Amino acid sequence: MDIKSISVGRKAGRFFVTVTGSLTIKTQIAGVGNLPAIGFQKLTIWDSGEIEIEGGALVFPEAITVKLGPATITVTAIGYGSHEQMHNGVLRKYNFFEFSGGIALNPGGVDARGDGIKFFYTTDGGVAHYYMRIAGIGLSLIIPGSASADSAALIIKGYLSLKDPEGSDPDAGTEYAGGIDFSLPKLKMAGGADMRFSPKYPAFAGDLWLELATPILLGSTGLGIYGFRALAGKNYLARKQAAGVLEEAPWWQYYKAKVAPDYAEGIKLSKFSRVPGFSIGAGVSLATVADSGKAFSSKLFFLLSLPEVFLFQGQAQVLKDRIGLDTTQDPPFFALIAISPQSIETALGVNYKIPDDKNPGSIATVDGVMEMGFFFGNSAAWYINLGRDLPENQRIKVTIFNSWEAYFYLMLSSSMIRAGAGSKYGLKKEFGPLKAELSAYFDINGRIAFKPKQNGASIQAGGKIVVSAFKFGTTLAVDAALSAEAPQPDIIYGFVTATVSFLRKEYALKFEITKQKNTQLDLAPFVLMEGASSAKGLHMLTKETYNLAFLGSSFPVSPGNWPIVPLDTYIDLEFKKGLKPAGNYGGWAGDAVYSTLVSPQKAKAEQVKHEFFVDEIKIYTYGSGSWHQYNIYEAMTPLLDSAAFDQSIIPTLKEGYWQTTEPKNYNKLRLQAMSNFDYLRQPSGSVIPPEELNITTATISCPGLVYELTCYPVAQNSGPYPVGFVFNAGQLHNVSGKYFIEVGPENGKVVEDPNNNITGLGIKNGNFIEIFLNEPSAYVSLFLSHYPPLTIKYFSKLLDGHDDNNLPIYSYNLISTSNIAQGNSTIVSINELIPSISKIEIYVEDIDPISQDLVCNIYMEMVDALHGFLYSLVLPNNVITDNYIDLISSAS
Q1: Considering only CA atoms, which of 772, 733, 737 is closest in space to residue 749?
Q2: What share of the chain is helix, strand, coil (3-state, %, to 5)?
Q3: pTM for the whole thing?
Q4: Distance between CA 415 and CA 596 in Å, rounded?
Q5: What are phi and psi of 698, to 5 degrees?
Q6: What is the rounded distance in angstroms from the CA atom of residue 639 to the CA atom of residue 799?
């Protein structure tokens, strides 16, 4: 054992020793020989002799191979560790043994491998539970077993992997991923399928392909279709994160990424993430027919992965063997189009090597990408790049004989043009103890910035010669550079340096020149808004746009008869640069890009840093002869006056949201928006007419107060309460399903009023009527006849809380009282919009009591004795006000 570190400790009353290092087993194993040293990060030995290896497995630097007759067994890793997971709703503790390896039979044509084969068993003292889990298993089969890959009748390759769920998460589920390929070399046919499946989510995806022996001709074009590919999936989407690519990176980097188990460019199931949505795709392999694709061959594929992206990829090869859907080598040419909710991007790339077989690129290599991007949320953010200046591996490069290299890039955008080119040469030779090295480079670049206008360019060149013998040598290096920028500042700068090293001592000489015509830095501020064009009104429903007036820095005295936009209109503000947001607006997380440098590239002069902030954005409304600050939530009268609404949160409610069109760039603000993705709701094409949604001018305009009244009589001969029906005191009686009536303390009775020839409910002096409305009403009208002085009280209903059964508890709040003088007949009405009426109490004064005998025996006198008489109750169907539309059912 080779020990790198050792420590002693105590845990839970037990002592342990922790060791890091490597372990060498000196005993030779028959058929294997000496085993390689096995490194480990942490080996713990407890006082009981128990050994734990943290990390779960020991990976051998070289696979251990054992030959047993015709079989060859390889072991790549062994391990032992602990594990926790849910079993039957209980979190259990396990230990496990693990190994990875494979077996090959030759002759026999069978090659199998297993990755992460684990045997688990419980250690927590509960009911014993054990099981086996295989992270991945692969199989390769050649029929007949003695045949080569070219002469075989059938070749089958397959692989299945199981991704473990999170150990302590009871809702996690295992994901199954794998594939199978078959090949019929003699028939020149091949096919296969890949899949991913998460049964608990649920989610699935399948990718199938088939290569034909004979192409399907495309007319007389000389081209033919050699293969087909189809992909479909639910809750699996193509995402940059699945390929290890940053979200802000272009989509062509997703195409170029290589991940397990394919390790290939292009659209692969291994680059999909399990998120809600669906994916569907199709493709073909296309090539020249006369030479079986040696002149030209390609693979085309489109993928619709909603709601994430639409991708169309093309891969091509020229003057080489045809590429098929089963080709594992990446083609040298590619093209990609990506359409996402944020942008439209395209890329053309090449990685062509001559030759590409035994010593790839030993003669020449061409590598580069041309890319373009256009963004929905920011029309000024477009770019067209033929390579990039940084990082250097994204430049367009040409390498000759592995010694001479040239590069080029051209970058175009709305703010700048940047270009550069260069080359370098390097040669190293060794002759025993003698060494010689020659290197040289040449670089030139330039840029043109539009806003603010600033131009710059530079040229650099240099070389080095090294000659050494027995580690002692001489070095001569020369470097020169010249740069210029204009117009503000206007500076020319250059230098030449020479360095000589001899016998490990160095001598240097440097000459500099600077010419300054204008050293003043450009401190002019940026214009962030260009008048009225920086703001627009957008109707929430119809998507009609409205031009807004730019008023400058002061308020007008009065808006007069200016046109106005509807209240349900977004106000969109667009700034020329990204800002650091402030104010009561949502949609930003504190990480913003809000600065720019002038000049954009570091040169001799200092760069000026501009930072852009928004201090506050306020909305004003005109009224009562002056301008007042406006809050959209305070303007919502029903919300403001509602007793159930917490008024204290109004200052915290967002008056709008910054719209997220690209990461960290906040240059678009939408007032009255409810999220930072409101712009995605804008429909394309025609908008559904409001009339088809049952929205008419009567429901979206604001006319004066309008009532549609419906009369609900208390009693009528054809109804449930005919003449003579007695309303028992203390009981509720339902009237037309719209309200309840209770009388007291004495009974009431349904009678006819001979003066008005109307049937109604009569009560005696000193009694009362309570009316409970099923639904609150803003308008109530009572028809009364032949009555002494009355007192009428109107109540609203308040929610006081809930009882133990979570049922609401209400109380009534007096909102109005009316005193009615003695009379023969009258109509009493009340209009209470907020709060609406839920209960009415009618009290009859006791000024002329009548004996029961007179009431019962003499009809006319009995009528006289009925000092309170209620005909009917009139309630509105619909109430329309100037502030909002309150659609009240006919029960109100």
Answers
A1: 733
A2: 5, 55, 40
A3: 0.60
A4: 12
A5: -70, -25
A6: 16
Sequential DSSP letters for 354-395: ES-SSSTTSSEEEEEEEEEEEESS-GGG-EEEES-SSSGGGS
* pLDDT for res 57: 52
Q: What is the distance between the alpha carbons of residues 354 and 841, in angstroms, rounded to a whole number?
A: 100
Q: Name the nearest CA neighbour of 761 among 719, 821, 791.
A: 719
**Residue that has been written with the tokens 């570091």 in this structure:** 602
Euclidean distance between CA atoms 362 and 355, whole angstroms: 7
Residue 815 contacts residue 794 (beta carbons within 8 Å): yes
Report which of 418, 400, 416 is spatially closest to residue 408, judged by C-alpha positions: 418
Which tokens is 41 given?
A: 């990060």
Higher confidence at residue 388 or residue 106? Answer: 388
Q: Is the pLDDT reported for residue 196 higher than 50?
A: yes
Residue 83 has pLDDT above 60, yes or no: yes
Residues 6 or more apart whose Cβ sits within 8 Å of residue 219: none
Q: What CA–CA distance (Å, rounded) separates 211 from 227?
A: 4
Return the top range by mean pLDDT from 160-169, 536-545, 603-612, 852-861.
536-545
Q: Tell me whether residue 290 is exposed, middle or buried, using C-beta atoms within 10 angstroms of its C-beta: 0 to 12, 13 to 18, 19 or more.
A: exposed
DSSP per residue, 116-159: EEEEEEE-SSSS--EEEEEEEEEEEEEESTT--TTT-SEEEEEE
What is the reported pLDDT for 282?
A: 97
- On the question of pLDDT at 239 being above 90, the answer is yes
Distance, CA of 104 to CA of 593 (rounded, Å): 57
Please answer whether residues 155 and 183 qualify as being in contact, where contact means their C-beta atoms are separated by less than 8 angstroms: yes
What integer pLDDT is reported at residue 731 of this predicted model? Answer: 92
Q: What angle do CA 833, 838, 839 make, to 5 degrees?
A: 125
Tell me the pLDDT tens digit for each residue of 442-490.
999 999 988 778 899 999 999 999 999 887 889 999 999 999 988 888 8
Are the CB atoms for 751 and 860 separated by under 8 Å? no
Residue 325 · residue 285 · CB < 8 Å? yes
Q: What is the mean pLDDT of residues 678-684?
A: 62
Single-letter amino acid code for the residue at 625: G
> 885 pLDDT exceeds 60?
no
Instruction: Return d(Cα 654, Cα 138) in angstroms, integer.
Output: 56
Give 156's contacts (C-beta < 8 A, 6+ positions apart): 139, 140, 141, 143, 180, 181, 182, 183
Q: What domains are defined for the chain? A: 531-700 (no CATH), 706-886 (2.60.120)
Q: Flag whether pLDDT at 1 surpasses 60.
A: yes
Alpha carbon distances (Å) from 332 to 284, 387, 402, 707:
18, 16, 18, 77
Q: Please, what is the end-to-end C-alpha distance for the chain in angstroms?
A: 90
Q: 């009290």: which residue's tokens?
A: 843
Tell me which residue of 359, 380, 382 sits closest to 372, measured CA to CA: 382
What is the token pair recorded at 212? 């034909």
CA 300 from centroid of its chain's CA atoms: 28
Percent of the chain exceeding pLDDT 90 equals 29
Give residue-wise pLDDT tens across range 97-106: 777 777 665 6
